[in-house]
Specification:
Layout lengths: L10 E4 L3 H12 L4 E4 L7 H6 L2 E2 L3 H7 L2 E4 L4 H8 L8 E4 L5 H13 L3 E8 L13 E6 L1 H11 L4 E4 L6 H27 L6 H29 L10 H17 L8 H12 L9 H7 L1
Parallel strand pairs: 1-2, 1-4, 2-3, 4-5, 5-6, 7-8
Antiparallel strand pairs: 6-7
Helix pairs in contact: 7-8, 9-10
Bound molecules: ligand FVH.
Length: about 290
């Protein structure tokens, strides 16, 4: 069905993968005239039937509107797609996952070509896009003027959170959250491996794990933040490092008894033991942050 897009702010979107297509549909549904480009043209056909304008090249799509959003696979694909485009006077918003350094380099490159720039970090999966209350949001950083000018349009697919003028900060926030999630996934995999050969159903462990991880995350992230801010890693500590390192031996031995590899746990246990050996037994685990940053 064709959407009525009279009166909305027009914009361009480069990239119609799973995320780009979800973004496109959210802007269309909100009444924004949309020009799109995708390397594989066939992917744009369903959207053309819904009312988007399909450009033949990325350069043509960029020329169509002042606001240009990019959501491609990676930094290299963004560079390739934008190589022949005239960015003068454009507001470029890159929602492609990348490193902070890549975002800063792209911002410099865009500024040299007369564009304002925002980097983005999408904290949502496609099914959360355009769904109010889904909890999905996007980090933005870079030109404050760009963000303020387009805040309402950017907030259509998911909540918009501006995290500073450094164009790399959106990526840094994104990757910080994804890295924490990755560590959590590692812990979940290890926990299920421990019970794998037993008569405990994974479905019985699942709610216990979910509740425990939620409770531990809620307390530990705030304690760690407060201790890093004060530089005092003892005040507020409930479970100290000396006790935790002693208990870590039980984690290692249980893995051994259950025939489970400890490779997901061991790097973190090693860092905790190093911090204890440095004489910090009364602290929480916050000192591991110092070990990582050197
Ligand atoms: N999908 C997700 O769950 C996550 C959620 C968090 C954010 N990510 C990031 O979003 C970027 C796009 O992800 P996606 O899900 O849309 O990815 P794909 O479905 O694989 O689509 C990739 C698009 O990129 C185009 N593309 C790839 N290489 C090139 C290139 N060299 N030149 C031009 N375009 C290129 C591809 O085009 P085509 O294969 O259809 O021709 C798609 O449009 C990504 O950074 C995620 O990390 C998504």
């Amino acid at each position: 069905m064709r959407q009525d897009t009279t009166g909305g702010t027009p914009l361009t979107l480069l990239g119609l993968g799973a995320m780009g297509t979800a973004l496109a549909r959210a802007w269309l549904a909100a009444g924004h005239p949309l020009t799109v480009w995708n390397r594989t043209a066939a992917r744009a056909e369903p959207l053309a039937a819904e009312g988007v304008t399909v450009a033949a090249t990325a350069a043509e799509a960029v020329a169509a509107n002042g606001l240009v959003v990019v959501c491609l696979l990676d930094d290299a694909s963004v560079r390739q797609a934008l190589a022949g485009a005239d960015l003068a006077g454009r507001d470029l918003v890159n929602l492609t996952t990348g490193t902070p350094g890549q975002a800063r380099d792209l911002a410099d490159w865009a500024h040299e070509r007369g564009a304002r720039f925002n980097g983005g970090g999408v904290m949502a999966v496609p099914r959360m896009i355009g769904v109010p209350g889904s909890g999905g949001y996007v980090f933005y950083s870079g030109s404050r003027e760009l963000f303020e000018a387009h805040r309402d349009v950017l907030a259509v697919p998911a909540g918009a959170r501006y995290v500073g003028t450094d164009p790399g900060f959106a990526a840094l926030h994104d990757v910080a959250l994804l890295s924490a999630m990755t560590g959590m996934f590692a812990g979940i995999a290890h926990a299920f491996a421990l019970i794998r050969r037993e008569t405990i159903a994974p479905g019985d462990l699942a709610p216990l794990l979910a509740d425990w991880l939620g409770a531990m995350a809620a307390s530990s992230v705030h304690l760690t933040a407060a201790q890093l801010a004060s530089g005092d890693y003892v005040t507020g500590t409930g479970s100290n490092l000396a006790m935790m390192v002693a208990a870590n031996d039980t984690l290692r031995r249980t893995a051994q008894e259950q025939g489970v590899g400890a490779e997901l746990l061991q790097p973190y246990l090693t860092l905790m033991a190093r911090r204890l050996a440095d004489g910090h037994g009364a602290e929480s685990g916050t000192g591991v942050v110092d070990l990582l940053t050197g």
